[in-house]
Amino acid sequence: AASGPKDVVMILDTSGSMSKKGRFALMQKAAKWVVNTLTKYDTATVIDFSSQARAMDWGSGSTNLQKMDDVGRAKMRDYIDNLSVIGQTNMPAAFTKAFAALDATHAAGGGSGRGLAQTVILFLTDGENSADSSPVEVVKARNTADFSARVFTYSLGSDSRGSDAMMGQLACDTAGVHSKVDDGGNLEKVM
After folding, report:
1. Which tens digit of pLDDT belongs to each residue from 108-162?
2. 8 in helix, strand or coil?
3. Cβ atoms 152, 123 nearer than 8 A
């Protein structure tokens, strides 16, 4: 996605439909693979979402992006391992939570030291948005020059076709890339 220090937000779908055809396990494995590629110069966090969105709590209620040293990567892998599936697919809530974490990190002077200039959002889902609003509108409103986040979208499974146009737009509008991964496909290779 980006070379050099970067700030990474992984948005992971934990809605009930992710329990189909091994998608949830595939997503967890790929997300932990991404964590393992991060270095002590990167910062990252996880937003998981279903009917509501949740930001990873790094301790004492902090949801800011954290350094990806050995401890940070271990905490992130543990968090990903302990996710479970239930609920619907509220995509706008996930992006709202992601940009709130970026805002808080920026306000605290955190990030990889590049002023959040290399911000990457990895968005993994198998479903269609169940909310009344669109995640595209959230990204348009919140992806300011402070971040200029590139959104890389990953549609998981054969029944995600209904959201392909929206996923493509999220990526295209932010100089990201949209990828489709069939059930049983190699998500790590695509990422």
Report:
1. 888 876 565 689 999 999 978 899 999 999 999 999 887 889 999 999 887 766 6
2. strand
3. yes
Q: Read off the tokens for 158.
A: 């054969």
Report how far Cα 89 is from the mean position of its chain's Cα atoms.
14
pTM of structure:
0.94
Which of 62, 148, 137 lies closest to 93 in space, CA to CA? 137
* Residue showing tokens 């070379």: 3
Backbone angles phi, psi at 178, to 5 degrees: -105, 130
Taking only the tens place, the pLDDT of each residue in 17-38 is 999 999 999 999 999 999 999 9
Neighbour-count burial for 65-104, b at 16+ CB within 10 Å, e otherwise: bbbbeeebbebbbebbeebebeebbbbbbbbbbbbebbbe
Q: Residue 6: what residue type? A: K
Partners of 9 in beta bridges: 45, 121
